[in-house]
């Protein structure tokens, strides 16, 4: 005699064993293991689901255990930032994401007084965001990354500031000799809109700026002050977007990279327009693989000073 829906005797036997198994373990899946009616009902429902799956010719699913650990990746769009690069100011939304990411998950620290944020990430999700004031990281933060998108200064951005600032406020209470440690800025395009600077790093330890494109800075593309061991690598900087031989080269201003500190590294960087490519006033800095467009004095600028 056939079985309804084409179910074989072997499948029915498997369902019977599965039902017995569910009844035996039902207590592990209930809110109240002491309630026998609840256990019986849970087992019955699971048996019915398994029977339906077998009848349909698909494998029954097993309970999935999910991790209770919260993610340390913060997407700015989830805080209301507008990734379209339109007229909506995303500064406050990005600031809220940074504020959440900057809450230490434990009492672990890096350098004395610098909180270990466990590699928390501010993820820009490949969008372009209009900002009206600096994107600032709270002091005493460490092991934090901002990456994966573009920031563009608005027409009202303060002309004496930078699009991204690692700089403690003047009245901030110092908890360490340094203000930051191991901050990574990666895969960013920063458009200072001919109003501001690109990135300011002040009194930071072991900062990494990599794989970024910084343009339209009015003052400096990257300014490193005090601290030490900032690494700038595999990046492009230019006050104006050109491909060399620009007839207005002599009128370009600004400095692409300024190092007012010790023990920093600039490597594999292209500076395609600025009055000065790299200005160094500190000691023990390492510069390698730097290409500066048209920076011979006769062409209107200085490559490395």
TrEMBL record:
Signal peptide residues on this chain, from the entry's feature table: none
GO molecular function list: polygalacturonase activity
Entry's transmembrane regions: 12-31
Keywords for the protein's UniProt record, in alphabetical order: Membrane, Transmembrane, Transmembrane helix
SUPFAM superfamilies to which the protein is assigned, alphabetical: Pectin lyase-like (SSF51126)
Pfam family of the protein (one): Pect-lyase_RHGA_epim
InterPro entries according to UniProt: Pectin_lyas_fold, Pectin_lyase_fold/virulence, QRT3-like, RHGA/B-epi-like_pectate_lyase
Keyword Transport belongs to the record: no
Ranges for domain Rhamnogalacturonase A/B/Epimerase-like pectate lyase: 76-298
Keyword match Signal: no
Gene3D superfamilies: Single-stranded right-handed beta-helix, Pectin lyase-like
Protein name: Rhamnogalacturonase A/B/Epimerase-like pectate lyase domain-containing protein
Protein's organism: Vanilla planifolia (Vanilla)
